[in-house]
Amino acid sequence: MIASVLAFLTAAITLGAYFPVIPKAGVIGPVIGGQYPFHVALLALVGAALGALAWRSGLVRWGRVLTSVTALSTIAALGIGGIQFAAARDAGTKVSFTQVFSRPASSGGAAPDTTRIYATPDGEALEADVYLAEKSRGSKVPAIVLAHAGGFHTFDKSDLRGTGRWLADHGVAVIAVDYRLATPDRPTWNKAPQDLVTALGWTRDHADEYGIDSSRISLGGMSAGGTLAMSTAYRLQNGTIRVADGPTPEPPFSVVGFYPGTDVDDMWEEDVAGSREAAELFTGGTPARYPERYREVSPTTDIQEGLQRTLLVVGDRDRSARPGTIKDFGASLQAKGVNTTVRELPFAEHAFDDVYGSLVSQTSRQILLDFLDKNT
Predict the structure, then answer these.
(1) What backbone phi and psi angles, to 5 degrees, belong to 341?
(2) How far is CA 211 from CA 14, 109, 215, 217, 222, in A?
(3) How many C-beta atoms surround the C-beta of residue 375 within 10 A?
(4) pLDDT for 250-269, tens place per residue?
(5) Reported confidence tier of residue 67, pLDDT bands at 50, 70, 90
(6) Residue 264 to residues 135, 272, 275, 319, Cα–Cα distance (Å)
(7) Global pTM exceeds 0.90
(8) Cα gap 376→374, rounded to integer Å
(9) SS (H, E, C) the chain
């Protein structure tokens, strides 16, 4: 019985990972197989051993089937891990298999150095988790203001603990921020971008206190946070957004989008994994009702010459931020002369960095560090 369950489970996961078009298996396969390929291989090996026992116990035909299926699943899972390992090495990642097997949480056991309130719009305290990097030979360090994922209406800055601590330990300060979340009676299309602008200004104001090089402060985010960060950064560069109260900060040095939505209208149209609900909560309605809001908050609207260096990272199995869409967006930026880097991670779904120790998560952190550590 156990062998049959393991055979079915590991076969479904590996088939789904390799062939995402398969219903249901194509959803769980990239998530589980892409983040835990070696765990899946171990399960398949256990299934193979149990299948062999069934074979020897007299269930010859069924034992052969179970052994064959689980053996193929083992090979397939190891193939995923091997491809991801090669991609990690190509990116210059110092792979830790200890993390692969022992640190499944997104936080990696991390905590910020300090948490500060950076703004109180309408009486709502917005906090920033600050991850400090040691000064290198007395010089100041680059920094990034990071916005969390969550479809504009859920999650918080704690999701960025693992990335924040790791970057700080490798020489880049991180300011992970909360922003006003959308609710059914409070769209935040015109509020959340203001929060990121304020967070950027707050970071500049505290640059000396935290040993940050004010000329190398970037803005980035994950999923919806990436959409917000990109749109806000480009609008600052284009001069189409200003702080409602007080001086508007200088645009960020560079921009980062991890599996971002590039067009909120597309998020509504495609309606993948709750993206339509997220778009409506964020804007307050449909594209037909508020077309100008959808245009204003979509990074595609702001593509023009003179934008900042941009890093786009996406998984090749992402159903929400589709790899083709991200690559087309990057190509549009490059066509305008914008220095743009697009990195596609193998067997990775949306939010591939949720599992701190996975190979794709380790690789994505290295890619981000290398991008942020560049002076130009």
Answers:
(1) -115, 125
(2) 46, 24, 12, 12, 25
(3) 8
(4) 999 999 999 999 999 999 99
(5) confident
(6) 39, 12, 9, 15
(7) yes
(8) 6
(9) CHHHHHHHHHHHHHHHHHCCCCCCHHHHHHHHHHHCHHHHHHHHHHHHHHHHHHHHCCCHHHHHHHHHHHHHHHHHHHHHHHHHHHHHHHCCCCCCHHHHHHCCCCCCCCCCCEEEEEECHHHCCEEEEEECCCCECCECEEEEEEECCCCCCCCCHHHHHHHHHHHHHCCCEEEEECCCCCECCECCCCCHHHHHHHHHHHHHHCCCCCCEEEEEEEEEEECHHHHHHHHHHHHHHHCCCCCCCCCCCCCCCEEEEECCCCCHHHHHHHCCCCHHHHHHHHHCCCCCCCHHHHHHCCHHHHCCCCCCEEEEEEECCCCCCCHHHHHHHHHHHHHCCCCEEEEEECCCCCCHHHCCCCHHHHHHHHHHHHHHCCCC
Residue 134 pLDDT > 80, yes or no?
Answer: no
Distances (CA, A) of 8 to 65, 71, 142, 349: 11, 12, 48, 22
Structure tokens at 262: 């590039």
